[in-house]
Structures are given as structure tokens and as C-alpha cells.
Design brief:
The protein is an alpha/beta fold. The chain has eleven helices and 16 strands. A hairpin with a 3-residue loop joins β1 and β2. α3 runs antiparallel to α5, α4 runs parallel beside α5 and α9 packs across α11. This is Amidohydrolase.
Length: 418
């Protein structure tokens, strides 16, 4: 993420305050700002009542309440706790999707705020409470303009982004069909970017992930007679060394890949040749071709090293999230809309992809998409902590800006607002 000078941060926070008072401020921002108290109340309720992935039953119920109050049709219980809603426009046209994730993290909330989590060991430490709130705010703005829309808006409240991934089962349940979603937008709040700024990444944005378990089978014997056994620990040492060559010698250096083995377990006694060693790790890659290549090479190295030493190798792969690859033309839409709403100086172009994962990737595979970062940092308010940390918080002004931008993204494709 681009570094922001502290002096610039202060100026940009002041600019947001000035923007809201400026008579030339975009209509959507003014309309969204009228919803600020409503959205703040919603966000704080979600924050006080976090739920883990696939357990978001209260959260689902509250979303349904808000949608009913707004007069928006919906289907709940999609992929267990997900909600899919639709705003049907006054005219025929394409369908645009907006997504928000719902789940919390197993973190104790240590903030001293009135909206601190009331559930021990659970916390919205990644901003999903804000994402749901922003989507509801955008829904309110778009519902009020539904007669102007040339097409439809689908709203996806997705469970379990932090755990098993709710995007894929929602898509498998048909959420992108009837009517078919042709363009998708998603966002994530970022404490690395000041409120009022947007982070945009063209092309590859987040890595794919795979959990790998390597099992090396040998033959046990007394340590005094090693020739009678097949040493699985020796195999593990050779395999660890050989696996380092997969990234350095098999992957195009212009691409990226990571192989990390975080645990190793084997042996029972210091004087006994180990007959089995297990290693568990993660593989991260940025495109499907490299992903397939790395997994194939890891499996071959494991098998051949073990075979060469008289044993047997086994690779168990648990496929994780796909790589998130943005569609450049859709990112351009977000860029143009951000410039119109917040000014050209609001744009941060992210140069390097993240090797972290994000299951919006499955929506991006299903339709041309843009996933972007929404600044929520405010040093004057002490809102500076990273996500997945016990003191994480957001500048709630970002709720207004996020709702306005997501509504603008839809309107720029389905029709112009008054």
C-alpha cells in the first residue's frame, strides 16, 4: 500500500470535512451523509454482536429486518446464513452486484468504546460490520432511485469470509443467476489509508491459498542399526531443502509464489529411526497456472525424494481460496467515480498484490469485477490499528463515503442520478 505522509493525512481529513460543507459537493455524498446516524447505529450494533462464519444467524436476522424496512425483496439462508437481495430497476438492463462479508474473528475486543463487542473472544476486527453497513446504506440510496435504474442491483451479504469461505457456496447455490450478474463490486476498509481515500489495484490483487500436508513414510529400527531402517527424518531434511528450489528454479521470477512449512512432527525416541514424518504448510500464488505448477512440483519432489531414499512420500492438498484478479475496465469505473466524488487526489494506486487471501475472488471469477480498499484511518481520532488486532476500529465517516461510492458504481452502469 502506498505510504501516506503524516502532514498529508491531516490535510486530507480536513478536506473531507470541507467537502461535506461545500455546496458543490456531489449529490450522492450529501444524500449518504443524511444516513450517517442510521448507518452508525447499524454498524455499532453489528460490532457489539459479532458472530463467527456460518454462525451469523442474529446478523442475518438483523439484515433481513433492515431490508424489510427498506422494502427490498430478499432471500435469506443462502449458503446457510447468507442473504441475497435485489432492487429491480424501472427499466430493462444489466444486473450489477454488490457484496459485503458478515463474519467476525476469534479476537478479544480490547477497545474502550460504547460499542465494544459484548461477546467474549469474538470481534469484528476486520471491518465486516462496516462492509454490511455500507451495503445497506448503498441499498437505501439505490432503492430511492430504483425507477431511474436501467437494470437491477443484487446485494450479497456473504458469510464465512474468514473461515471456510461463503462466496463459492453462494455462487454454487445460484446467487449470480436469475437475473445473471454481469458486473460485481466489492470493498474492504483499510486502516492503512486515510478516510476519504481509495486504494485501487489493477489485475492481480490477492493470492490463492492451499494447505499442504506432506507425509513421509519410512521404516523404524533401532538407532544403533540404521541400515535396517528407512529414516523418515532424513527424508524430511532432504525434502525441505529440495522444496526451496520449486520457487527459485521452477516459478517464473516475474510471478510470485510462497511455500511455507510451518509444522513438522516425527519420531518417538532419540535412539529410534523414525518411520513417519508429517509436515504442514501453505502455498500462496497469484495466478492459476503458477498455482497448478507449484502443487505439481511439490508433489513430485516429495515423491521422488522419498523414493530415492527407500521410502514413500504423500502429499495431501486442501484447496483454499482462488486468486483475486480484478478486471481492469471495472477498476477504471471505480477510479472515475472516486475522482468525481472525492477528487483525483483521493486515489491510491496499489502497486504490489497481497499474498493474503480474499474469497471475493470467486465473484471475480464469475463476473467482471473490481475489489477496492476504502480508507478508514484517522490519526486525530486514534484510529490507526491494523485489522485482525484487538484495538482495530474505523473512522465511521467512511460509512458515508463507502455507501456513496458503491451507489455511484451502480448508477454509472445502470443510469444517472438526478
Amino acid at each position: 500500500m502506498n505510504k501516506i505522509d503524516k502532514k498529508d493525512k491531516g490535510k486530507k481529513i480536513d478536506r473531507i470535512d470541507q467537502t461535506l460543507k461545500n455546496p458543490k459537493t456531489h449529490t450522492l455524498i450529501k444524500e449518504a451523509h443524511k444516513l450517517k446516524d442510521w448507518m452508525t447505529e447499524i454498524r455499532r450494533d453489528f460490532h457489539k454482536n459479532p458472530e463467527f462464519g456460518m454462525e451469523e444467524f442474529r446478523t442475518m436476522g438483523k439484515i433481513v429486518e433492515y431490508l424489510e424496512a427498506l422494502g427490498i425483496e430478499y432471500t435469506s439462508g443462502v449458503a446457510n446464513t447468507g442473504v441475497v437481495a435485489i432492487i429491480r430497476g424501472g427499466k430493462e438492463g444489466k444486473t450489477v452486484g454488490l457484496r459485503a462479508d458478515m463474519d467476525a474473528l476469534p479476537i478479544q475486543d480490547e477497545k474502550d468504546v460504547p460499542y465494544k463487542s459484548t461477546v467474549a473472544g469474538k470481534m469484528h476486527a476486520c471491518g465486516h460490520d462496516a462492509h454490511m453497513t455500507i451495503l445497506l446504506g448503498a441499498a437505501k440510496l439505490l432503492k430511492d432511485k430504483k425507477d431511474q435504474l436501467k437494470g437491477n442491483v443484487k446485494l450479497f451479504f456473504q458469510p464465512a469470509e474468514e473461515t471456510v469461505g461463503g462466496a463459492r457456496p453462494m455462487i454454487e447455490a445460484g446467487c449470480m443467476e436469475n437475473p445473471k450478474v454481469e458486473v460485481m463490486f466489492g470493498l474492504h476498509v483499510s486502516s492503512e489509508i486515510p478516510t476519504g481515500e481509495i486504494g485501487l489495484k489493477y489485475g492481480q490483487m490477492n493470492a490463492s491459498s492451499d494447505t499442504i500436508k506432506i507425509i513421509l513414510h519410512g521404516k523404524s529400527s533401532h538407532g544403533a542399526y540404521p541400515h535396517k531402517g528407512v529414516d523418515a527424518i532424513m527424508m524430511a531434511g532432504q525434502a525441505l531443502t529440495a522444496l526451496q528450489s520449486v520457487v527459485s528454479r521452477n516459478v517464473d521470477p516475474r510471478n510470485s509464489a510462497v511455500i511455507t512449512l510451518g509444522t513438522i512432527k516425527g519420531g518417538s525416541q532419540g535412539n529410534i529411526i523414525a518411520d513417519k514424518v508429517e509436515m504442514v504448510g501453505t502455498v500462496r500464488t497469484l495466478d492459476p497456472t503458477t498455482r497448478s505448477l507449484v502443487i505439481q512440483r511439490v508433489e513430485k519432489v516429495v515423491n521422488l525424494v522419498a523414493e530415492a531414499m527407500g521410502g514413500k512420500g504423500e502429499l495431501i492438498r486442501e484447496e483454499g481460496y482462488a486468486a483475486l484478479i480484478n478486471t481492469d475496465s471495472i477498476v477504471d469505473i471505480v477510479k472515475l467515480n472516486s475522482e468525481e466524488l472525492f477528487g483525483a487526489e483521493s486515489i491510491n494506486i496499489i502497486k504490489e498484490p497481497s499474498l493474503g487471501v480474499e474469497d471475493f475472488a470467486y465473484f471475480a471469477q464469475a463476473a467482471p469485477s473490481a475489489f477496492f480498499r476504502l480508507g478508514c484511518r484517522n490519526e486525530e481520532k486514534g484510529i490507526v490499528h491494523d485489522a485482525h488486532y484487538c484495538l482495530f476500529d474505523i473512522d465511521e465517516e467512511c460509512l458515508v463515503l463507502g455507501a456513496a461510492l458503491q451507489a455511484k458504481n451502480v448508477l454509472s452502469l445502470l443510469g444517472e442520478e438526478d
